Amino acid sequence: MAVAGVTGGAVAQAGLLDRERIIAQPGFNRWLVPPAALAIHLCIGMAYGFSVFWLPLSKALPTTDPSCSSLTLLGALTTTACNWRVADLGWIYTLFFVLLGCSAAIWGGWLERVGPRKAGFVSACCWCGGILIAALGVMSHQLWLMWIGAGVIGGVGLGLGYISPVSTLVKWFPDRRGMATGMAIMGFGGGAMIGAPLANLLMTYFKTDTSVGVWQTFVVMALIYFVFMLGGAFGYRIPPAGWRPEGWTPPVAKSTMITHRHVHLRDAHKTPQFWLIWAVLCLNVSAGIGVIGMASPMLQEIFAGSLIGQPGVGFAQLDAAQKAQIAAIAAGFTGLLSLFNIGGRFFWASMSDKIGRKNTYFCFFILGIILYALAPTLATLGSKALFVLAFGIILSMYGGGFATVPAYLADIFGTQFVGAIHGRLLTAWATAGIFGPLVVNYIREAQIAAGVAPGPALYTSTMYILACLLALGLVANALVKPLPEKWFMSDEEVAALQAKTAAANAGPTGSFGIGTGGFDAKAALAWAVVGIPLLWGVWVTLKSSFALFG
């Protein structure tokens, strides 16, 4: 009752988006928060699927000027007479993840002050507004407008939307930190499974003799996403200071790797532990994102004719029709990797609750090194099923790394500023998003220049180098130790911060009748709203992957 009285007075004076407005009241069910996070992550996760627009946009104009063959990147940004190249459009993908990491780092502290609702609302405005600006860019055939709209403004929306639920879920589920963040962050991996087939359906519907249907698709998807993201933002609630799940008490620490204290945001990046975990995430992501980028050509060039029942026929010996056939089958491989990516985010994050975050990353690196080292042998043997399984497991650990790292940070630095600390750590993702594909593509081009023909040998060096990256990550993870006492805030400083930012009771701890209810009817409905689209995306992906083993 004391909490209700304190928060009630604050709510009466708070604006609709203010942090004080979303402090949970007695009777609130904590299982309503993960679907709110998923509603946002499933929308912004379409960033992974934006390549579905590249080919249609590269043929948007019926005719082009002969001078277009010598078009520079600067010329492509402003031309209205030439079709854009896929490489020019691909920069939007790079902008997505560079801006995601940068915006998460810059505005992570602001998010902790204002709360997840306001951050989620701003994310919806930036992501959906950026897509609408990109639609204007398509209509006027101005690539620079697409870069600014989808890439820059949309990228800021990605960063704010990605980190908006992290600290909230960690605080709602102190008993299952890994599972909680895994539930939300798996949505980012699943966004493309829903968005890409939806985009294909919409482009087919809107396509005419004079339009490829992309700008209309952008408008419709932006409106759909805005509704879902607003629903997620307004579904957020935060627990009052001192709240804990009913009947749960913080366990006596079995591991010195888990702290019940808190490090201030201003100090986290000064510790070696922050930069070691930064390196752990960067190296894990660099290896995985390189595979994502080359998954389709890798499968086609390694297995070639065996994908269509003609073993022994190399990639160079296939005609155009056969190459089109294996390209369609390789798309199924990419879809399967997406499923492993999503499943790994939930599985490994939940597993980390049982075996610990550091041990989970040890699994990532040791298994990854073994599987990358075995991949050339599996390719040479022509073992398609084992090759696909190996890379499926690798991609599950790529996704699991994203989902586990927020809980890793909460274990080491405490929960008070974990969202903002996580935001700063995501600069590792931005770095890996450039470094990983650059290294992988350079190695492949160097092999081709050296005369290596398409086939297993073309990727052997790549696999061994990726294994070396994971070995460096293994060393970095081994060096992560508990923080010395000097980095933690005093109990008085924590209480003052909680009272200031939450405007809530910083006194006795307890459940206060908040967070109860389990998986009741209201929670089931909220999960259905996000779960049904996700299941549809899974089904579409599975159908497209059947051809891989057909």
From TrEMBL:
The keyword RNA-binding does not apply. It comes from Rhizobium oryzicola. It comes from the Bacteria. Keywords: Membrane, Transmembrane, Transmembrane helix. The chain crosses the membrane at residues 31-55, 90-107, 119-138, 144-163, 184-206, 212-236, 274-295, 326-348, 360-379, 385-409, 421-443, 463-480, 524-542. Residues 37-485 form the Major facilitator superfamily (MFS) profile domain. Pfam families: MFS_1. This is OFA family MFS transporter. PANTHER family: MAJOR FACILITATOR SUPERFAMILY (MFS) PROFILE DOMAIN-CONTAINING PROTEIN-RELATED, MONOCARBOXYLATE TRANSPORTER. Signal peptide: none annotated.
